[in-house]
Design goal:
This is N-acetyltransferase domain-containing protein. The chain is α+β, with helices and mostly antiparallel strands and 322 residues long.
Length: 322
């Protein structure tokens, strides 16, 4: 047996070459659950834990904390936006390849049409559907468009105008974000949205939206996880972040730290802890969204390995503008 396992830590991702009863060998890759003098228990993203006798292990090698893959910038912008879609959603309805969304007015993303792909009808007719859907749900008509896309140009040609700020979508491989580190013990990650996390989210983003609608958006379509760090008193939550996995993508959202607890690395610690959680669910890439004018945040994310993927913005018909 390879002596490398003598330095192994629970939670690390390893590949074990194991001897089979017929004399052949097979590789088992996953995260270490336990390591004893007699056996190793390992689990993967697709298989439950399995215990392997150490006398069967021929070679053992630590591997990156998440599976690799091609450069995430090779993913088309419309494909990534469709992956992002399920991470922040309340009510929705298909319009061809577009998605009409309504969420009680809480956030532009949950209350706009994702105008990506072909709406299946001529653009003027699609616009009528978007406006009618918004009116039926008591929200302002808005379209989220990829900057420079056909939908962007087409709606502008019909007189639609920009609202809000342009948003940059940044991406990186999950292995780049995680590096060689292990989850920070200060961070708690749960797949259950509790009242403490929800209260901290309310402090980070004060609003008067229907609490049940906000909860529906935050819980989304699983798998979703909520990271938090307690303040020194052990009672009040000092920092939060939310993660959502869609296919091979982890989305990081709602990243916030109380002002008096900033510059302590809590945001990075939460992002990486959510990354470890997502890797066990098959994620290989990670994305986040940041306002175009927030250069400080963009520079901080660049230091973690994030690069620009695409930009999106919101457009609204002139009659909907104040």
């Amino acid at each position: 047996m390879d002596i490398a396992l003598g330095k192994a830590r629970v939670g690390e991702r390893w590949v074990l070459r194991c001897r089979q009863p017929d004399g052949s060998a097979t590789d088992v890759t996953g995260w270490l659950v336990s390591v004893t003098s007699d056996a190793v228990t390992i689990e993967s993203a697709s298989q439950p834990p399995r215990t392997i006798g150490r006398d069967r292990i021929i070679v053992a090698k630590r591997v990156p904390a998440a599976a690799g893959g091609p450069d995430p910038r090779r993913t088309p912008a419309d494909e990534l936006e469709r992956a992002v879609l399920t991470g922040w959603l309340a009510d929705s309805e298909a319009l061809g390849e577009w998605t009409l969304r309504a969420g009680g007015g809480f956030s532009a993303r949950a209350n706009s049409v994702l105008a990506v792909g072909d709406p299946g009808v001529p653009l003027p007719q699609a616009v009528e559907r978007v406006i009618g859907y918004a009116q039926a749900h008591g929200i302002a008509p808005q379209a989220q468009v990829i900057v420079g896309s056909a939908a962007d140009h087409g709606l502008v040609a019909l007189g639609w105008l920009p609202v809000h700020v342009t948003t940059e979508v940044l991406v990186c491989r999950l292995t780049t974000l995680l590096g060689d580190g292990m989850p920070d013990p200060r961070v708690e990650v749960s797949e259950e949205l509790d009242d403490g996390w929800l209260a901290a989210f309310g402090r980070s983003r004060p609003h008067d939206a229907d609490p049940e609608v906000v909860r529906r958006i935050l819980t989304g379509q699983p798998p979703t996880a909520y990271a938090s760090v307690l303040a020194e008193d052990g009672e009040r939550i000092a920092a939060i972040a939310r993660g959502h996995v869609s296919g091979s993508w982890l989305g990081l959202m709602a990243i916030w730290t109380e002002p008096e607890h900033r510059r302590r690395g809590l945001a990075t610690a939460m992002m990486r802890s959510l990354g470890h959680w997502a890797a066990r669910r098959g994620a290989r890439y990670v994305y986040l969204q940041v306002a175009q004018q927030n250069l400080t945040a963009q520079q901080a994310y660049a230091r973690l390995g994030f690069v620009h993927h695409h930009s999106y913005r919101y457009l609204a018909p002139p009659t909907a503008l104040p």
